[in-house]
User: Fold aldehyde dehydrogenase (NAD(+)) from Paraphaeosphaeria sporulosa.
Amino acid sequence: MSLPYPPRSAYYDGKLQSASSTSSFQTIDPATAKPLANIHTTSQSGIDAAVASAKKAFPAWSATPHIERARILQKAAAILRARNDELAKVETHDTGKAFSETSTVDVVTGADVLEYFANMVGGGGLNGETIQLRPNAWVYTTKNALGVCAGIGAWNYPIQIALWKSAPCLAAGNTMVYKPSEFTPLHSTLLAEIYAEAGVPPGVFNVVQGGGDVGAYLTKHPDVAKVSFTGQVSTGQKVAGSAAGGMKYVTMELGGKSACIILPDADIDQAVDGAMMANFFSTGQVCTNGTRVFVPQSIKAAFEKKLLDKVKHIRAGDVSDPNTNFGPLVSKPHYEKVLSYIKHGIQVDKATLLCGGPEKPAWLSSHKNKDYQNGYWVTPTIFTDCTDNMRIVQEEIFGPVMSLLSYADNDIASLIARANNTDVGLAAGVFTKNLNLAHQVIGQLEAGITWINTWGESPAEMSVGGWKLSGVGVENGRKGLEAWVKNKSTLVDMGGEVPTVFAKL
Ligand code: NDP
Assistant:
């Protein structure tokens, strides 16, 4: 059967490789459950070859003048922008996310980060510092590239994640072997080709294909100096544990169960819009989602009414239609997982179902594309009267499932304690007109990414990373570059005096 996309395999030595193993898998269009392409799993010898390619390319790439590296990466950002809609269509096919999102967010925010880090290194961002100790002695520091780095991505923002990892990695002079999620691999070799077209030399950005075993082999590879991982907490724990054996650098961008706090004086329309964004954008498949929405008792009824009005404006359907803003979930296993949480919320947690539920969405039966009935479609779901110990409130669902939790208006102290009562600490946000109070609350929240009166924006300039089990390190912003270099400090003594303790020897 001919599929919409040609087969994909690994990419190294500056070209697409032929299949290096006999096993393969298919990537599936989540809107219809139909296959999109055959993907050849990269064998262990193929992974070794990709790492060897990256190792060979490292000395020349790390020695390339910063301004020249910057120029090449800026060109890649320009190509990404020129091919935005074509790449967005691929992402829409692979992830199921509506084209209205992928064409305005996914490629754009990846290209922004590439441009940001290219400009940063071109503008002296890799300079070290000089510390004068005495008139004739000083310390200088240099920032040195790490070597071959592994990037392992999740499926929710495939090309954005690939760029958020490879942009600072390559800008700092490292080379990369990247493994996309097996659920969304299509972007990976396209990105490799775009880098090559921009002038990135062979071996600097490489791709291997496959599931967890490919990621595990790459993580423990002795020639890999750093692993940058995005995925679930449980997988991140395995990856960090394996990397620790080789004392590798790690960046871990993991899951969350973030608190979205509505304070009693909040502009209710703004707060409802924030809660919608924090739960239903990308069909709820966003790591920073604010799925625990804390609402004061005084405005609970009004808040719920406005939420129900807003939910009616979610437009599910043809994912290529620019008016659609809600797609299916990414895969069958994920669809089944999200449905099981919704059922658990109703049957076991006994939360009150405000809207949605586990049934197939009503619009599906009359949709013009009959294949959509096989897709992984769910209905936006809101539970209310939730309590802190419910499973739907405690565990990351990673789907369009909002939990409303109420609190006594005057008890902000216990509200903050409840918001912090979780092992994860990725994001948090506060809605209020009282900005002094907003900063006081934000200051006490145990999360690495926080917002006041907005939700979800994550520009290139903003360093993002989780606290607690949500991760280690940050991506983006000035601090994002530091994660891809190692420091060397040199003390220079112009007096040429050897410390007396040695002079006596
Ligand atoms: P997973 O942890 O299931 O997978 C992430 C990646 O790791 C995939 O490429 C996967 O391969 C690979 N992998 C699986 N097992 C191993 C292993 N033992 N060693 C190395 N690699 C392995 O996460 P999901 O793909 O399900 O992504 C969703 C999760 O990602 C959510 O928890 C979400 O919160 C989090 N996330 C965090 C972000 C952040 O910035 N903090 C941003 C986006 C998502 P494969 O899938 O091919 O089997």
Summary: The longest helix spans residues 99-122. Residues 170 and 468 are 28 Å apart (CA to CA). The mean pLDDT is 97.
